[in-house]
Amino acid sequence: MPEVERKSKITASRKLLLKSLMLAKAKECWEQEHEAREAEKVRYLAERIPALQTRGLSLSALQDLCRELHAKVEVVDEERYDIEAMSGMEGRKKMFDAAKSPTSQ
C-alpha cells in the first residue's frame, strides 16, 4: 500500500491567525484575572486593616503607636517563621520516609 500524503485541512496562515487570536484572548483573560485579584486584594486590605490616624497625636503617643505596631509585626514574623519551619520539617520528613520505603528501591 502506498502512503498517501495527507494535506492539512487548514492553511498555515489561517493556523497562525487562529493561534494569534487565541493568544490575544488568553492575554485578555489573564489581564482581567489580574485586575480582579488586585481589586480583591485592595478590598480585603481595606476591610482588614483600618486606616492609621496620626493627626493630632503627641510625640509620646506616636512613639507608643510605633512600639505597638513593631510588637505586632514581630509576632507575625515569629508566626511566619514557625510555619515555614514546620512546613520545611514536614517536607524533609516526607522525603526521608519516601527514601526509606521499600517500594522506592
Automatic annotation (TrEMBL):
GO-annotated biological processes: cardiac muscle contraction; skeletal muscle contraction
What domain of life? Eukaryota
Identify the keywords attached in UniProt to this record, alphabetized: Actin-binding, Muscle protein
Q: Which GO terms describe its cellular component?
A: troponin complex
The terms under GO molecular function for this entry are:
actin binding
Does the UniProt entry include the keyword Magnesium? no
**Pfam families per the UniProt record, alphabetical:** Troponin
Please state which protein family the record places this protein in.
Belongs to the troponin I family.
UniProt function note: Troponin I is the inhibitory subunit of troponin, the thin filament regulatory complex which confers calcium-sensitivity to striated muscle actomyosin ATPase activity.
Give the protein name, as stated in the record: Troponin I1, slow skeletal type
Native species: Oryctolagus cuniculus (Rabbit)
Q: What is the lineage of its organism?
A: Eukaryota, Metazoa, Chordata, Craniata, Vertebrata
